[in-house]
Amino acid sequence: MKAKLIITILSLVLTCIAAPGTAIGRRIERAAERLVLDKIPGYTTLHGFAARLSDSKENASFQPALVEIEEALVPGFIVEQHSGNRSTVFIPSVPTPMAGAVFIIDNSRVHPLDLPAVSVMQCISKWGGGSDKLVAAYDAASSRPTSLAKPTNQQQITNESERARGV
Length: 167
Hints:
Elements: H1 2-17, H2 23-35, H3 43-53, E1 63-69, E2 72-82, E3 86-92, E4 100-106, E5 110-112, H4 117-125, H5 131-143, H6 153-165
Antiparallel strand pairs: 1-2, 1-5, 2-3, 3-4
């Protein structure tokens, strides 16, 4: 037990001493993460989330999105894309965005937003204040033509009734 503690402290000290911008510093940092930090529950998720918030291109997870939950659009983040047309999404709690719920949901109900993750986090921590940015990004993405867009039930009804009338 003492040996593990000493190794942990030593690796953290070496990480702090080594300049992160150098090749040696990056190696020590990766080794410390792999040997110590990755074993802490939740570290990998929080690290990925922090990287996304800082707009790090190294980690492409946590893409901001509006997710259809029941009859509502809910701010969230795409964590992973899966086969079978599904995604894992994280829906943060209000006003504490570091807690929340995880859903595996059909991609047709997940709407990626072209916004920085910070905008979504600010909206959540302000009890929904500033959600106009999210809605504007959603509307902008919705107005773009896509070959994958499926008609809504109302559009299907309208199209069928027009065909029936010969329009």
